[in-house]
């Protein structure tokens, strides 16, 4: 159900715009709901080219729709003005989300305007908008909450969905968005059954991912059921249970053919879901290049067992694969968060001589000791000496840096033996520096892991065979409407949290 709630303390410039809309209403000119959606999308994404990805519409058509809106209200919607409008809309939807969980009965509404205007607002019309004359037109009523009819609500529910959206730096909010539609013959629509919260989502929230687009639904770890596929999709069909790859990739460019799908040259290639296009902390998600980005979940594998396949497990699998691990090696893993543990599970597949995990959080160290007793553990302050004492050549043969801190970035090369491989898996909030004069003579090979999610089918097979088990990492579960609580828990690392699942 669409509910729009505007407060007086919101931007004065927006109310001036509303006043112009009110004046045009008296002339029997009105603004459509779709036009407002278009303006919101353009302001939120920053460009029309990004905004068109949210609608089944061409770029010229979107441009013309916004121009028509400008003519209707007699106001040029500059970037600044549009941003004001968009931000106010987004804030309003975020503020009303808790209210919409328990909506009043049909016909209930509240209006702070004068009696004469309040009397005019006695009818409820399509979309839940106040308008005294026509069901095909709308106008704003400040401070007013209006609910649509039950029949309209049901129809709107079928076309809209609840999402968790990146509003601005530092702000995510629950809000309603239109249900996604197929935009290309290679797309698929997936009904999300289970999603999760990732540290990369926190990086977006705090502005550490410049390519992330405000207005985008976040979330890139999810499983679900295929609801609809484009005409060119052949590997999955409606009804299939699938994992969703964090990477969207065409499968045809130079990098895709080499297996480097993170570097896909298509405009939707690489990490797009939950970053540049709407992601999966929502009830539905559109997946481009569905034949590459979706993998069927084997019978007998649960959603929880498969949840991490498309991102953190893919990250760990790729990092272990490129690190050239041999059975004679001592492998050091820095960090025992979700990605660190997934990396550990994938390193174990290579059967190195010994594995050492360094972590400062005692609860996470205890988790490692409980579930993987064959793994050695150490805290950062003792790490260098511990590694020298438990390696054959004065340091680790392979180091995987998964913690993402300034200190662990330095610790990675300090604990490596000469001619070792150092694989940097973590994301950082700021640039890191290699002090080359201090490193002279170590002859290290540095690799950056990232995630190239081209092995999801293999990891699903390994899960089905019982060789990988990531389900113990899911320590907490929240419904989508309470996702903000899950974020707060995850970010502050309370209650022994490792990974938070979100039921959509």
- Our count of helices gives 19
Question: How far is the N terminus from the C terminus?
Answer: 17 Å
The class by helix and strand makeup works out as alpha/beta
Name of the level-1 CATH class of the largest domain: Alpha Beta
CA gyration radius, whole angstroms = 26 Å
What is the 3D shape?
A: globular
Main sheet: strands, sense, barrel: 7 strands, mixed
> What are the segments in which pLDDT stays under 50 over at least 5 consecutive residues?
1-16, 20-31, 78-149
Q: Provide the CATH superfamily of the largest domain.
A: Medium-chain alcohol dehydrogenases, catalytic domain
Q: The CATH topology of the largest domain, please?
A: Quinone Oxidoreductase, Chain A, domain 1
Q: In percent, how helical is the residue content?
A: 25-40%
Mean pLDDT: 79
In the CATH hierarchy, what is the architecture of the largest domain at level 2? Alpha-Beta Complex
């Amino acid at each position: 159900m669409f509910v729009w709630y505007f407060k007086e303390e919101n931007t004065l410039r927006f109310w001036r715009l509303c006043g112009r809309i009110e004046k045009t209403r008296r002339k029997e000119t009105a603004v459509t709901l779709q036009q407002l959606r278009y303006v919101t999308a353009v302001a939120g994404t920053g460009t029309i080219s990004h905004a068109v990805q949210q609608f089944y519409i061409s770029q010229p058509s979107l441009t013309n729709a916004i121009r028509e809106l400008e003519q209707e209200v007699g106001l040029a919607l500059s970037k600044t003005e549009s941003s004001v409008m968009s931000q106010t809309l987004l804030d309003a939807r975020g503020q009303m989300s808790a209210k919409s969980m328990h909506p009043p009965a049909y016909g209930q509404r509240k209006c702070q305007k004068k009696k004469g205007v309040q009397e005019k607002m006695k009818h409820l019309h399509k979309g839940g908008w106040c308008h005294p004359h026509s069901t095909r037109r709308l106008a704003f009523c400040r401070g007013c909450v209006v609910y649509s009819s039950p029949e309209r609500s049901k129809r709107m529910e079928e076309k809209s969905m609840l999402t968790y959206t990146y509003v601005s730096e530092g702000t995510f909010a629950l809000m309603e968005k239109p249900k996604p539609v197929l935009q290309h013959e290679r797309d698929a629509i997936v009904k999300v059954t289970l999603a999760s919260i990732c540290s990369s989502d926190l990086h977006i929230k705090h502005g550490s991912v410049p390519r992330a687009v405000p207005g985008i639904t976040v979330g890139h770890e999810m499983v679900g059921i295929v609801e609809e596929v484009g005409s060119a999709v052949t590997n999955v069909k409606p009804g299939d249970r699938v994992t969703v790859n964090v990477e969207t990739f065409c499968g045809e460019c130079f990098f895709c053919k080499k297996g480097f799908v993170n570097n896909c040259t298509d405009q939707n290639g690489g990490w797009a879901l939950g970053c540049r296009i709407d992601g999966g902390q929502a009830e539905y998600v559109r997946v481009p290049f569905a034949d590459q980005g979706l993998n069927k979940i084997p019978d007998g594998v649960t959603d929880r067992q498969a949840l991490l396949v498309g991102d953190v497990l893919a990250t760990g699998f790729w990092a272990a694969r490129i690190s050239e691990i041999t059975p004679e090696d001592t492998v050091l893993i820095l960090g025992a968060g979700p990605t660190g543990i997934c990396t550990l599970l994938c390193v174990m597949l290579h059967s190195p001589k010994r594995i050492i995990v360094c972590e400062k959080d005692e609860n996470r160290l205890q988790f490692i000791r409980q579930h993987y007793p064959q793994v050695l553990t150490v805290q950062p302050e003792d790490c260098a000496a511990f590694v020298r004492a438990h390696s054959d050549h004065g340091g680790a043969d392979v180091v995987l840096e998964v913690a993402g801190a300034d200190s662990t970035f330095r610790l990675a090369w300090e604990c490596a033996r000469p001619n070792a491989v150092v694989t940097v898996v973590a994301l950082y909030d700021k640039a890191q520096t290699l002090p080359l004069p201090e490193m002279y003579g170590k002859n290290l090979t540095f690799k950056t892991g990232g995630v190239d999610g081209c092995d999801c089918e293999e990891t699903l097979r390994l899960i089905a065979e019982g060789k990988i088990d990531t389900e113990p990492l899911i320590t907490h579960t929240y419904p989508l409407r309470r996702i903000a609580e899950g974020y707060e828990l995850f970010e502050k690392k309370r209650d022994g949290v490792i990974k938070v699942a979100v039921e959509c």
